[in-house]
Amino acid sequence: MPYAAACALLLTLPVLPVLPGQPGWSAAPAGQGRPSFYAEGAPGAVLRDTLAVTNRGTRPLTVRLRATGLPVALPGTALRIPARTRAEVPFTLTVPSDAAPGDRPATIVVRAADGRESAVRLLLRIGGPRLAALTVEHVAVRAGRITYELVNRGTTVLVPRLAVRADGVLGTVLDRAPRTLPVRLPPGARLKLDEPWPDRPALDAVTVRLTVTASGGARSTGTASARFVPWRTAAGTTAGALLLVATPVAVRRRRRRTTAELPRTEVEST
Question: What is the DSSP secondary structure assignment for residue 5, as one 8-state letter?
Fold first, then answer.
């Protein structure tokens, strides 16, 4: 939008002069007592609100506006605000038509020429059924770690909890109680993670089971099988097996050779 047209949309109001210790300007949602924006809408809806940028200084202020996280349409990117004036900037937010129900965060950033920024948070709640669902995939044991992937199959942001168990031939070799993972999994996201296992058994065949849960009833289990054989033991076992197979053959060959080398005895008849 052209700069002149953008200015025409601004409602400018006088403000009190800046006091000692106060910042020269600020940005916040228009109206009283709103620290951030909040909006609700179904996919495809167009929502409207207003941003207030207050210049308390004695000189005009030029700021640039941008939005992150959601399709927010602002009236131009550069705005000039007179001294001791509050500019109210209307904007629109279009809810993506393919958006899944749940909460989506965004930010409107106001930046002055001196590099100082003010970020105003925006939370959009998209209507529709809320479903908590996830899956654990590609579980594997590699080099002292258990690797796996988490996939959010639902419509809500998940904070997963993980429990780990491994059962060997003679019983349980690993049992870790459920704990909350330091991750947030938005709808549709896939995350590769790993779990350390430094004290894994030296000789065993195990089944590893990962159980992941989250609020809303989400639950999934993934498994993997692994065999642990020390390479020295494996090498010794292989050599021993070859020796056992080769020994009878060597004995038979030695017997044949010994028989062939015995001297002949001729008996003469009288």
Answer: H
